[in-house]
Design brief:
- This protein is α+β, with helices and mostly antiparallel strands and 263 residues long.
- It folds into two domains: 137 residues, Fructose-1,6-Bisphosphatase, subunit A, domain 1 (Fructose-1,6-Bisphosphatase, Chain A, domain 1); 111 residues, 3-Layer(aba) Sandwich (D-Maltodextrin-Binding Protein, domain 2), CATH 3.40.190.
- Helix content is 35%, strand content 26%.
- The protein contains eight helices and 14 strands.
- It has a seven-stranded mixed sheet with strand order 3-4-5-6-7-8-9, sandwiched between helices.
- Helix 1 packs antiparallel against helix 2 and helix 5 packs parallel to helix 6.
- 44% of the residues are buried.
């Protein structure tokens, strides 16, 4: 295990504290107060409380950093070069339906680049971490992307539009191109964990459109530090800006990208 930086220790601590609170709420999911945030998109009291907890922990430790979270207005720190990017509960719909697949995601951005990331799955007590140049880790074990070379052996993950979103036809076309030549496609509803699973070699690749920066900021670094390739679906764009991501191991990336980009 590498020697984690002070910032990483702060991030892990915040993720664990928020994760413990979420886990308690998850066990009482039927009693949660739920409000509608948009079509097919729900926010729970647990979600907003988790973000408040993370903000408190990070701000106390690094009061000069900015903060961008899913559930609140962005705040700008005295240090304009650094900000936290936080999704306090990625997989909210899973959480509210009692499905044990959701996570806390915390990333640190420095001068526009993600330099540290944490994705924590409290249900399984899996802590995925990465720092730029230090590799990626699952608890105390080094992670590597998968080594599969044949598309027909690969399992991919994606997100699918819900609630009548306009990009449904495009997603169906993606599936029509990918499914015939692979071992399967999974849609588990938590992009942060999808990316963490690519980093851990559980998935061979992942793609999704219409994501927010907090959905993927930490996960993108996990994949890069595990040896994976990360691009936007439009190859000349930054995923954090475009909201689109395409990632896989090096042996299959070009073939996989060709299918998604429909080149």
């Amino acid at each position: 295990m590498y020697n984690a930086s002070a910032n990483m220790n702060i991030m892990v601590k915040a993720a664990r504290i928020a994760g413990r609170k979420l886990l308690r709420d998850f066990k009482e999911v039927e009693n949660l107060q739920v409000s509608t945030k948009g079509p097919g998109d729900f926010v729970s009291k647990a979600d907003t409380t988790a973000e408040e907890t993370i903000r408190e922990q990070l701000t106390e430790a690094r009061p000069n950093y900015g903060f961008l979270g899913e559930e609140s207005e962005e705040t700008f720190g005295e240090d304009p070069t650094r900000r936290w990017i936080v999704d306090p509960l990625d997989g909210t719909t899973n959480f509210l339906h009692g499905m044990p697949h959701w996570a806390v995601s915390i990333a640190l951005e420095h001068r526009g680049e993600i330099v540290a990331g944490v994705v924590y799955d409290p249900v399984k007590d899996e802590m995925f971490t990465a720092e730029k140049g230090e590799g990626a880790w699952l608890n105390d074990r080094r992670m590597r992307v998968s080594a599969r070379h044949e598309m027909i052996e690969c399992v991919f993950a994606t997100g699918l539009p819900f609630g009548g979103r306009a990009d449904l036809p495009e997603s169906i076309q993606d599936l029509a191109r990918v499914l015939p030549g692979c071992a399967g496609v999974r849609r588990w509803g938590a992009a942060a964990l999808d990316l963490a699973y690519v980093a851990a070699g559980r998935y061979d690749g992942f793609w999704e459109r219409k994501l927010n920066s907090w959905d993927m900021a930490a996960g993108l670094l996990l994949v890069k530090e595990s040896g994976g390739i990360v691009e936007s679906i439009k190859s000349d764009e930054n995923p954090l800006v475009s909201g689109e991501v395409l990632t896989a191991n090096e042996p299959i990336f070009n073939r996989f990208a060709k299918l998604i980009r429909n080149d």
